[in-house]
Amino acid sequence: MLSNSPRAPEAERLEQLRLEYLEGMPMAEFHRLLTESGEYSVSYAAVRNYHTGRKAPVDYYARVCQVFGVRLEWLLFGEGEMTPALQLAREGRMSSQEWAGSLSRVAPTIWDPTDQVTQAALLDCLQRLELARPGSRPLSPKERENMAKVLDTLAGGILWILRGDREVPRAFVKLILLAVTEAIPEPGKGSTYQDILKRIRMKDEGD
Question: What is the C-alpha separation between 4 and 16, in angstroms, rounded?
């Protein structure tokens, strides 16, 4: 028997993520991406319930944010913007206008001037790449352009392998950006060139 209780706000936002941000991703694919690494386990029936009304445990929301690159504050409480990049832009710490003029030229595969969500995913990825360089100076505008070119080449190569000459669905681009973003270390947790040299020296001295 179906419940007549209204859908929880968190479930509404989960569906907004799936239907709008991920362009109608099937629930089965959503479930697969959450569990494919083996680090997290949840049944398909539970996922479906969490999207249709039942409140989920906090670890489920945390996993959704980790996999799909959205903010936990937004998913749990509806506070701020969906993605870190949109939140940074809202707070005035990052302006997409600074990038928009060059990204359509240097990253045509992954920059979609008509899709704010894909733009946010790219900006978030670029921001995380720059922040994950501990002890390094901020990148110059030219270096940021070069970073965007490399990311565009990477995404373009993956899309060519997957799709060949067929039309590329925009959801593919977002998923590639989210996958890259998830793999980027948190700020300060990467290794600088000096850190690597130091570890090599310590190993040599211990031999």
Answer: 21
Provide the number of structural domains found in the chain.
Answer: 2
User: By the 8 A CB rule, do 84 and 127 touch?
Assistant: yes
Q: DSSP string spanning 40-81?
A: ----HHHHHHHHHTPPPPHHHHHHHHHHHT--HHHHHH--S-
Do residues 181 and 85 lie in contact, with contact meaning Cβ atoms separated by under 8 Å?
Answer: no
Residue 138 has a pLDDT of 64
Q: Is residue 207 part of a domain?
A: no
Contacts of 13 (CB under 8 A, 6+ apart): 74, 75, 78
65-83 residue pLDDT tens: 888 888 888 998 898 888 7
Within 10 Å of residue 102's Cβ, how many Cβ atoms?
16
CA distances to 52, 73, 92, 116 from 13, in Å: 11, 11, 24, 17
Do the domain assignments include residue 201? Answer: no
Q: Is the pTM of this model over 0.85?
A: no
Percent of the chain with pLDDT over 70: 70
Rounded to whole angstroms, the Cα distance separating 150 from 171 reads 20
Q: What's the rounded Cα separation, in Å, for the pair 83 and 58?
A: 18
Distance between CA 177 and CA 57 in Å, rounded?
27
Domain-embedded: residue 200? no
Distance CA 110, CA 126 (A): 12
CATH of the domain at 53: 1.10.260
In angstroms, the first-to-last Cα distance of the chain is 69
